[in-house]
From TrEMBL:
Organism: Simkania negevensis (strain ATCC VR-1471 / DSM 27360 / Z)
Cited Pfam families: TruB_C_2 (PF16198), TruB_N (PF01509)
Reactions mediated catalytically: uridine(55) in tRNA = pseudouridine(55) in tRNA
Listed name of the protein: tRNA pseudouridine synthase B
Family: Belongs to the pseudouridine synthase TruB family. Type 1 subfamily.
Function as written in the Swiss-Prot or TrEMBL entry: Responsible for synthesis of pseudouridine from uracil-55 in the psi GC loop of transfer RNAs.
InterPro entries to which the protein is assigned, alphabetical: PsdUridine_synth_cat_dom_sf (IPR020103), PsdUridine_synth_N (IPR002501), tRNA_psdUridine_synth_TruB (IPR014780), TruB_C (IPR032819)
Length: 227
């Protein structure tokens, strides 16, 4: 095992993809086998657990089992194709939910719930990624999954609803935003998302992704050998 192999928690910046982080780390480390434990959409920020070297990518499933925490901003009044700010608006609503309605609906999403994965996702059905079909205008039936949620309302000032969310693996925050909107009798989509924790890794444990653009940056002091 080389000195550069290990687990590197990174604070992903807005507008970057997970593949971008993989590509940059390959150049910096010279390691070809690099993966991650849970993707973040380009508009999202926060904790990404990068796995450097085959000994770590081989055990990626262990890291994928971790629960996660997020800070999310949901915008009410409009839904989009992707359930987030990167999609095109599909429906709008002028209904303004009350604070009481918000609190009541959020209670329905506490604990164990059933969630249908979104079409714009990397989830595979019959060997094909859903987003590939979605980009062709094809929508197929998806089996619901069971997830665990713990949600706290941080602020509500229409049209924005700010939430703190703890969730089990496999939960889609974009779908949660859309589903909350439907329960409220309006439309909704996710406009901001920050992953504040992934398993034992918190934002305070991460290096800033912007540091990786410096070819002379030495990230090895930040590497962990076990989680």
């Amino acid at each position: 095992m080389s000195y550069s192999e290990g687990i590197l928690p990174v604070n992903k910046e807005k507008g970057r993809t997970a593949f971008y982080l993989v590509k940059v780390l390959r150049k910096l480390s010279g390691i070809k086998k690099i993966g991650h434990a849970g993707i973040l959409d380009p508009f999202a920020t926060g904790v990404m657990v990068m796995l450097l070297g085959r000994p770590y990518t081989k055990i990626s499933d262990k890291f994928l089992q971790h629960d996660k925490e997020y800070l999310a901003t949901v915008k009410l009044g409009a839904s989009t194709t992707t359930y987030d700010c990167d999609g095109e608006i599909t429906k709008t609503s002028d209904h303004i939910p009350t604070e009481t309605a918000i609190e009541d609906v959020v209670k329905e999403f506490q604990g164990s719930i059933s969630q249908i994965p979104p079409m714009y996702s990397a989830k595979k059905v019959n060997g094909q990624k859903l987003y590939v079909l979605a980009r062709q205008g094809i929508e197929i039936e998806r089996n619901p999954i069971q997830i665990q949620l713990e949600i706290e309302v941080l602020d509500y000032s229409y049209p924005e609803l700010k939430l703190r969310i703890k969730c089990s693996k496999g939960a889609y925050m974009r779908t949660l935003a859309y589903d909350i909107g439907q329960k409220l009798g309006t439309e909704a989509h996710l406009v901001e998302l920050t992953r504040t924790r992934s398993g034992p890794f918190e934002l305070k444990d991460c290096i800033d992704a912007k540091s990786l653009s410096d070819r002379s940056f030495n990230f090895t002091p930040y590497l962990r050998k076990e989680a």
